[in-house]
């Protein structure tokens, strides 16, 4: 009899733990969703205007020149 | 004005996938999305060829032509970028793209899609350069830092070329002359047709 009660308590404890784990996972998921690629809070967004967004940004810096030079090596 | 282009020298590509890994790591691309991938034809058979493929930043981008919300724009460097705040994830650009570049994050259990994600030529997006918001939405902006796309810079066999179209075409031409053969600049005729009027 007492063994049966223990079994029930154990089972309920397991189910409680399972429920808590699920709630924790949901909370973690919500936190992860904040850092998803297409979710930026509007307050953080500082958009460029039409001219800025199409402006040329490529510069032939020393870094870029080194890239072109090393790609010219034969092997 | 320099015109940015990608060129994959398929005679050099060894299908190591370092470009794919570098891209995913640099931009913290979400699960299920690959902005760049390596396609292999005749795998394991004579005539095997591998090509590293991503958005080619077409001269007359078909994705932009079909976008119902006009979220695409082309910069003065000829880099095709898009605004994720305008994108509705309709998927038209995926059907229009000859290279299969647009990707969509899965946001639900029933196949619902998020906003489109694609290669930005490491040039970010319409957020202010190198801000946290730009990084979260589009990844890092190496072009604004005076660098080139990491996939090309990381390529161990120098198969993937990126940068000023004139310069990388010259580099490829020199290689072809030296080795006496070349399988062609794959995708260039599709992406950068010179006859196209924009």
TrEMBL record, chain A:
Superkingdom of this protein's organism: Bacteria
Q: Report what the protein is called.
A: Formate dehydrogenase
Q: Which NCBIfam families match?
A: formate_TAT
> Which InterPro entries does UniProt cross-reference here?
Formate_DH_TAT-contain, TAT_signal
Give the source species: Caldovatus aquaticus
Automatic annotation (TrEMBL), chain B:
This protein's source sits in the domain of life called: Bacteria
Residues passing through the membrane, by range: none
Keywords for the protein's UniProt record, in alphabetical order: 4Fe-4S, Iron, Iron-sulfur, Metal-binding
Query: Which Pfam families does this one have?
Result: Fer4_6
Q: Is Zinc given among the entry's keywords? A: no
Domain 4Fe-4S ferredoxin-type per the UniProt entry, residue ranges:
4-34, 78-107
What the entry lists under SUPFAM superfamilies is as follows:
4Fe-4S ferredoxins (SSF54862)
Heme: present as a keyword of the record? no
Q: Record's NCBIfam families?
A: FDH3_beta
| PANTHER family according to UniProt | PROTEIN NRFC (PTHR43177), PROTEIN NRFC HOMOLOG (PTHR43177:SF3)
What is the name listed in the Swiss-Prot or TrEMBL entry for this protein? Formate dehydrogenase FDH3 subunit beta
Q: Tell me the organism.
A: Caldovatus aquaticus
Instruction: List the gene name.
Output: fdh3B
